[in-house]
Design brief:
Helix content is 58%, strand content 3%. The protein is mainly α. Strand 1 and strand 2 form a beta hairpin.
Length: 165
């Protein structure tokens, strides 16, 4: 199941993001269950690329990867009671997009991935194939994280992603 090319692509991106952005600080915020935003985003990126490979889908892999890695780049703990965290599920895509725009230039596909990954909570559906893939994989990963503990143990171990984090 573990694909070396996918792992290498993700590792290269993470290493670059580690020195150019606050990407790794996402490991300070819990997303679902005991999974941090960082590992949630890595899992969404990995399994999105896995589906592309499994079904031989033609898409912009780089845009898919960057959109998936940044889809939850909102940089706060939404579990903390704070008025600015109200309606997190509806509002965080816009915050993630705003934060991502501060650290990198994005194309239309990447922006669509970030803004529409919460569909149907957000009113507009994803437009691009890459956005649809990330939206679906995000729901699957989120469900898994809510109901399972010690998530992505195999992914963390076999992917050696921890080596660059």
């Amino acid at each position: 199941m573990i694909n070396e090319k996918t792992i290498n692509d993700i590792n290269k991106c993470i290493k670059k993001l580690a020195v150019t952005t606050a990407f790794l600080t996402m490991d300070n915020y819990i997303q679902h269950g005991d999974t941090t935003c960082l590992w949630h985003s890595i899992a969404v990126a990995y399994y999105s690329l896995f589906l592309v490979r499994l079904f031989h889908l033609r898409c912009n892999r780089q845009s898919l990867l960057m959109g998936a890695l940044f889809h939850d780049y909102y940089l706060y703990d939404w579990h903390v009671k704070d008025p600015s965290h109200r309606f997190h599920g509806f509002r965080h895509p816009k915050t993630a997009l705003k934060n991502t725009r501060k650290v990198r230039k994005m194309n239309e596909v990447e922006m669509d991935i970030i803004m529409k990954h919460m569909f149907p909570l957000t009113p507009f559906p994803p437009v691009y194939k890459e956005s649809i893939i990330v939206c679906i994989v995000d729901k699957i990963c989120s469900t898994y994280e809510v109901f399972c503990r010690n998530t992505y143990k195999l992914l963390k171990k076999e992917c050696r992603l921890y080596s660059c984090i």
